[in-house]
Design brief:
Blueprint lengths: L4 E3 L14 E4 L2 H6 L3 H10 L2 E9 L13 E7 L1 E6 L8 H6 L8 E6 L3 E4 L5 E7 L5 E2 L13 H6 L6 E8 L16 H5 L17 H4 L1
Antiparallel strand pairs: 1-2, 2-7, 3-9, 3-10, 4-7, 4-10, 5-6, 5-8
Length: 214
């Protein structure tokens, strides 16, 4: 039975969060696909999720959420801290990362290679304290909304990983946006109404994953 950590995250003044909990599967990707990007592509595709990017993360980033799509983030290399469920309250990344310029609440989770996160639409996330240190970069061809290659799987085989890298996937047919906080203060129900996926990207229709917990 896979280890599944569930984090209910209530709405804040700026972040809608979700009626569904954030799900964290520690080390599951290593077990299911050896942290191999091409194998992960096969697994996600078989479960109706579209892999759209691999990013190498920098030291920190702005907190953000997606209002139109659920997201799966899978860690391929390195380690980092990810803060979920609260907005930044300053554009100063130093203040929002190392200081108090963020909303109270939320949860900080340590992420390492092999971990999988299922992030419901509306749940904010901010990746910081990445290791090994590196500059932020999109490693796959395209604009981050699809892999721009005739053979996406082969493009993943050819992608060289360095630093802290994650791959992102979304239920087929969905399109993601990016919001900083406050955009849906009066439209929380719209974000909460994003359709539940039919299958978990890693666990399929198993009840241990989103099929049983969402």
């Amino acid at each position: 039975m896979p280890e599944v950590r569930s984090y209910p995250l209530p709405p804040t003044a700026l972040i809608p969060n979700s009626k569904y909990p954030l799900l964290h599967y520690p080390g599951l990707l290593a077990e299911k696909a050896d942290c191999n990007a091409a194998k992960v592509y096969d697994l996600f595709t078989s479960n109706g999720w579209e892999l759209q990017w691999i990013y190498r993360y920098g030291p920190t980033q702005a907190s953000h959420y997606h209002s139109t799509a659920h997201e799966c983030m899978a860690v391929l290399s390195g380690s980092a801290t990810i803060r979920f469920g609260v907005a930044d309250t300053s554009d100063n990344l130093e203040a929002s990362t190392h200081g108090s310029a963020h909303e109270d609440g939320g949860v900080e989770v340590q992420a390492k290679a092999g971990d999988v996160f299922l992030i419901p639409a509306g749940v904010s996330h901010k990746t910081h304290h990445t290791s090994p240190p590196a500059e932020f970069k999109l490693l796959t061809p395209g604009n981050g909304h699809h892999i721009a290659a005739e053979d996406p799987r082969q493009a993943l085989v050819e992608t060289e990983l360095s630093g802290f890298t994650m791959m992102g996937a979304y239920p087929k047919g969905s399109a993601w946006d990016s919001c900083q906080g406050g955009e849906h203060s009066q439209q929380m129900e719209k974000v909460w109404g994003v359709q539940k996926p039919e299958r978990d990207p890693v666990l399929g229709d198993g009840v241990d994953g989103l099929c049983g917990l969402w």
